[in-house]
Amino acid sequence: MALTIGAFFGIMLAGVPIALCLCLGALIYMAATGNMQLLPNYPLQMFGGVDSYGLIAIPLFILIGEIMNGGGITRRIVDLAMAFVGSLKGGLAYVNILANMFVSSILGSATAQVAIMAQVMVPEMERKGYDKDFAAGLTAYGGMLGPIIPPSVMFVVYAVLAQVSVSDMLMSGIVPGVLLTLLFFLVIAGMGFVYNYPAGDKLSLRERVKIVLGAAPTLLIPIVIVGSILGGFANATEAAAVGSVAAALIGCYWTKELKFKQMPQMMLRAGVYSAIVLFLVAAAAVFSWVLVYGKVPQAVAASIQAIAKDPVTFMLLVNVILLVIGTVIDGIPGLIMTVPILLPIATEVYNIDPRHFGVVVVINLVLGLLSPPVGLCFFVAAAVTGAKPGRMFMVTLPFFIISCVLLVLLSIYPWLSLALVK
Amino acid sequence: MNNEAVAAKSRSMAVPEAIVAVSGRLLRVEHRAIQGLMFLLAALILLNVVTRYTGYPIYWIDESAVYSVVWLTFIGASAMTRMRLDFAVTMLTERFSERGAAIFRVIATLGVVLFGISLGVMCWLWLDPVGIAQAGFDAKEFAAGSFNFIYTERTQTLNWPTWVIYLIMPVFAVSMTLHALANLFEDLGLVAKQELPGFAANADGVVN
User: Fold this and answer.
1) pLDDT tens for residues A110-164?
2) Per-residue pLDDT at B7
3) Is the ipTM above a cut-off of 0.85?
4) Which residues of A8-23 are buried (b: 16+ CB within 10 A; e: fewer)?
5) How far apart are CA B26 and CA B182, in angstroms?
6) Which residue of A lies nearest to B148 if distances are taken between CA atoms?
7) Highest mean pLDDT among A274-278, B65-69, B103-107
8) What is the structure's pLDDT at A188?
9) Cis peptide leading into A398, omega within 30 of 0?
């Protein structure tokens, strides 16, 4: 096993794609342990990894994001947030987070969300006198809500890895997502007081009503997705398909910025980006097959049990381990590598609800996208706006700390994640 | 350089160029297949919603949608190999000099070639084309002799032979190897870098 682990990290650091590191790692293990009789089963294990109904939601969720990006929906959502909280002290900072919360109920990925939102929010905040690095950093934290509030690509991947209902997993992100938004508001209020943030423009009631009416149809997308799952009318996959039709219709007939001739290109991009995630899931299937053969979860469980005697200590320990892993490895690959090892320990040794565990793991790995040295969301925000990633992290440190506070709260109180799950 | 040396050099260059050309054509076919599968997937799920609500559910839709996603996964994974869109840890390699980074790029691409060939070998062992041919393409006789039931199984609701669906695995092994070889020849400087259909961002900047 030591040879496999060494070879795995060696090829990963050499820059071999992570999915193939998992696939090659499994092959090396078979060769090192003389289990060559497993070779003919290998392609079937890989095929079986993606032979799952729940995964169908992923291409559809990514497609909704592509449609939203091309459909002029973002601008209207930002205006909507402006109508609600724009006139407060530090108004644009609140608008940034609130608009991100709305957008995250349409988009399922943090990095895609940061790329879209940074283009709109950062120049606007800069014009109002906010520090560019702060504006970009804040948008990156807003993007964190993308994979927490449904739809979420990471939750679907987790649900399939953990063999729990995709709908349940998506619903368990709602309360933590809203709670994180409120905690971010608290930080903005505090920082606004200390740094004397400018107030936003005052809007008349008539203007506000006009904006809300103009943006209202865009909120149909999250209502369709979340409403149909919560109301039991559709499963996550069906909700995603109906959501993508709603997004296309709104883009074509309401905002009128989407053209049907753009659809083939959007389908192609959504298909390729989905394949990137799905292929990782296929690779994870071979990887966990080998892990089970090598009794790795049992070995890790034994050493963790020596340190953590109760579920809360275990969850806090998991948070520390994942925060460290998240600094180097991105969200979905991190999920693929850690869940097959940690989940059996959580459910079998500590009797932790797999959905609750999923929420903590996903939020933790998303936070990893906002921590150096590989803070992917900061890099995306920097690429779009020209801000500096290192300084971005420093000027938004209170948001990192409050996100850690949320993780501790979630680790101690499982009902926060399970409140909306039947 | 005399004429013979020039001819030998052009002969040795012909193989990399041919592979890069085939890989380019294959990528275009894969793009069309990905678009088609995405349309098919969305249409199947929407049809499912409509038929379920009108009280006439079609029982084979779910299975068709799942297999569309499986094919999408492997066709997409092959395309992304050529487009170099996959997730990779670059925090070490990007700190090297240009030459050092180029060497690591070749090593990483060799890893992809190695996996493609290995998967091809494993698919050969799994599908055992020689075995089924020796059994006179009689699936039952082959299964009785080898305990490999791949040619007798059928899918649950579509009732298609499963080996037809599984064919995506050997196809993926071959196409991925071709794309990885094309990448390798580019990395080694044997062929000029090809212009590929543009994608604005790479993987980790989009899906996390």
Assistant:
1) 888 898 899 889 998 998 889 999 999 999 999 999 999 988 999 999 999 999 9
2) 64
3) yes
4) beebbbbbbbbbbbbb
5) 11
6) A40
7) B65-69
8) 95
9) no
pLDDT computed for residue B6 by the predictor: 62
Q: What is the mean pLDDT of residues B135-144?
A: 89
Tokens for A354, please give them. 């797999």
Q: Residue B109: pLDDT band by 50, 70, 90 thresholds?
A: very high
Q: Please indicate if any CB of chain A lies within 8 Å of the CB of B87.
A: yes
Question: Looking at CA atoms only, how far is residue B2 from chain A in angstroms?
Answer: 41
Give the C-alpha separation, A24 to A50, whole Å. 18
Segment B31-57 shows an average pLDDT of: 93
Q: Do B45 and A237 touch (CB under 8 A)?
A: yes
DSSP assignment of B55-93: T---TTHHHHHHHHHHHHHHHHHHHHHHHT-S----TTG
B43 shares contact with chain A (CB less than 8 Å): no
Residues 155 to 214 of A: which have CB under 8 A from any B CB?
A: none
Coil vs helix vs strand at A89: strand
Identify all chain B residues contacting A54, using CB atoms and an 8 Å cutoff: none
Nearest Cα residue to A412 out of A312, A319, A320, A343: A312
Chain B residues within 8 A of A281 when measuring between CB atoms: 73
Q: Would you report the helix, strand and coil content of chain B in percent, each value rounded to 5?
A: 70, 0, 25
B129 interfacial to chain A (CB closer than 8 Å): no
Q: What is the pLDDT of residue A334?
A: 86
* Inter-residue contact A177 to A108 (CB < 8 Å): no
| Interchain contact, B46 vs A279, CB within 8 Å | no
B118 touches chain A (CB under 8 A): yes
Measured in angstroms, the CA of B119 and the nearest CA of chain A are apart by: 7
**Range 145-164 of B in CB contact (< 8 A) with A:** 148
Predicted confidence (pLDDT) per residue in A183-205, tens digit: 999 999 999 888 888 887 788 88
Rounded to whole angstroms, the Cα distance separating A216 from A79 reads 11
Bridge partners of A199, per DSSP, are A89
| A 92-151: CB under 8 A from B | 109-112, 115, 147
B100-135 burial, b at 16+ Cβ within 10 Å, e below that, comes to eeeebbbebbbbbbbbbbbbbebbbebbbeeebeeb
Contact between chains at A279 and B105 (C-beta distance less than 8 A): no
Q: If you search the block for the tokens 């987070």, which residue do you land on? A: A97
CA distance, residue B39 to nearest chain A CA (Å): 7
Structure confidence at residue A211 (pLDDT): 87
Residue of B nearest to A148 (CA): B208
